[in-house]
Amino acid sequence: MRHLRIFVAVAEELHFSRAADQLGMAQPPLSQAVRRLEKDLGTELFDRSRRQVKLTPAGTVLLEEARELLVGEQRLRALARRAGEGASETLRAGVPPGTTVATLALLLGACAEHYPGMPVDLQEITTDEQLRLIASGELDVGLVHQPVDVTGLRLGPEASVELGVVLPRTSPLAQLPEVTLAELAGHDLVLLPRAQAPGWYDRILDACRAGGFVPTGLRHASRPELLLALVTAGHGIAFDQGPVAGKEPRVVWRPLAGRPLTQRTSGVWPAGRSSHPAAPHFAELAADVLAGDRPVTLHRDDGPPAVAEPPRPWAVVYEEAASRG
């Protein structure tokens, strides 16, 4: 790790003398350390043939990896130090915008039950922003809507929820037991902004086109409450889970024929060894909480899909409170 720190300093300065000053050491031992690293790796990392020092292709590749290793080393040291002090490191977790207060309460309650004493910093962040923060090390685990690019990430159980259509109660379609996508022709569509989950946004529109529904216009609502308000005011229809629409008596929820829209949500965290030890367990707890009081299909990387038992969510909150009393 010492040789990597020296290499990164030289690579960033592209000057041996300035890198030595930055590290508070003489230049000869610094140059020797770089030579030793090049010998160990079997390739030159710097082009010294000109007056200006430049990275070789191998050096360019190593620089990115070395930075990640050094960040991981710092995190490992922090984990060991905090563990030695008897404290658990805060789990920084992201959830999608629009996550209901009830879901957040259940998730925090489940974390408190399974990891008593571990602080959880729960943040409402869009899928794209979660992925960026995980990559930069500013977030330990995220709860994202699929599909997403999972390069360099580990995936937790996937919770799948079939979406129906939210309609004004006065709509003729509200009289049907279920609605086809083609029957929605002529309506505007109310969606969460694309920036919140680009992959999921595009998948919705692809499914609509495939089912014969091309919205006459698109409207965007960043919160479920605004989405329901727009539908209530006759500004379009929306796709959502039934319980969300149940909060507003002026709209109705109907299943979609053929179940063409399935929202898949899963926890993601860094694949490296420096990931937070509680990250995969948070992903499993989140999948259980998202199941609510309905069975939900959980897809795992290490085994066949399984149907989770319906959890008893409110017991998590009240038993936690009772244990304190």
Q: Describe it for me?
A:
It is a single chain. This protein has a seven-stranded mixed sheet with strand order 4-3-5-12-6-13-14, with helices on both faces. Strand 8, helix 7 and strand 9 form a beta-alpha-beta unit. Helices cover 42% and strands 19% of the residues. The protein has helices at 2-13, 16-23, 27-41, 57-84, 101-114, 127-136, 198-210, 224-232, 242-245, 279-291, 313-324; strands at residues 46-47, 54-55, 91-95, 120-124, 141-145, 153-162, 164-168, 189-191, 218-220, 237-240, 251-254, 262-270, 297-299, 306-307. The chain is an alpha/beta fold and 325 residues long. Helix 1 crosses helix 2 (16-23) and helix 1 crosses helix 3. It has three domains: 2-84, Winged helix-like DNA-binding domain superfamily/Winged helix DNA-binding domain (Arc Repressor Mutant, subunit A, Orthogonal Bundle), CATH 1.10.10; 91-152 and 268-292 and 309-324, Periplasmic binding protein-like II (D-Maltodextrin-Binding Protein, domain 2, 3-Layer(aba) Sandwich); 164-260, Periplasmic binding protein-like II (D-Maltodextrin-Binding Protein, domain 2), CATH 3.40.190.10. It has eleven helices and 14 strands.
